[in-house]
Amino acid sequence: MKTHIVIHHSLTEDSRTMSWNAIRKYHKNANGWRDIGYHFGIERIDRSYEILMGRMLTDTGAHCKEMGMNRVGIGVCFVGNYDYLEPSIDMVYEGAKLCACMCELFNIKVENIIGHSSLATYKSCPGKMFPLELLRKLTTKRLLKAVTNGKSATRLRIVRVTEKRSGDQRKEGFQNLRRTEGDAP
Ligand SMILES: [Zn+2]
Fold it and tell me: What are the E-state strand segments in 36-108?
């Protein structure tokens, strides 16, 4: 059962090309994991932000080994480096949609949306500039709105990235991903 949502950043640049499959490749090839360490990612693709599928929710993650979070935490990665700049409001909003959906599905409390660094002090996730409190607020707002409208917060568009779409990001290469984080069990 999932009790927490653990928020990360990828430490890579959120460039115009897609990083998600490059992160997946890195986690698989360089780290030797069976799949990308996170359950979901948020990334700008072309002009909008998309929620991307990582490993299955039924699968133990590889994103935060502290407090058994790989097992009970849903790992969500905001693609980019938010140590130096804030993510855009659109990106945080997209993340709130996902969080509200997960909170409703698994009955997770909004205060259990936590940053990786709160458990692993040697990490900066989700970045020193990341507005975690805003993410919680927007999530609460969305959950309340769903209740008011008598609709579920679980209506969500999630993109499954196929390997083929990763073609144009080859030029990003591994150099950009050397510092990609993720945390094996
Ligand atoms: Zn992290």
Answer: 40-45, 48-53, 73-78
- Find out whether 183 and 70 touch, Cβ atoms under 8 Å: yes
Q: Which CATH number fits domain 4-168: 3.90.79.10, 1.10.290.10, 1.10.645.10, 3.40.80.10?
A: 3.40.80.10
Q: Report the SS3 class of residue 153.
A: coil
Tell me the C-alpha distance between 98 and 1, whole Å: 17
pTM over 0.85: yes
63 Cα to the center of ligand 1, angstroms:
6
In the reported structure, the alpha carbon of residue 148 is separated from the centroid of ligand 1 by a whole-number distance in angstroms of 34
Domain layout of the chain by residue ranges: 4-168
Task: Tell me the pLDDT tens digit for each residue of 63-113.
Answer: 999 999 999 999 999 999 999 999 999 999 999 999 999 999 999 999 999
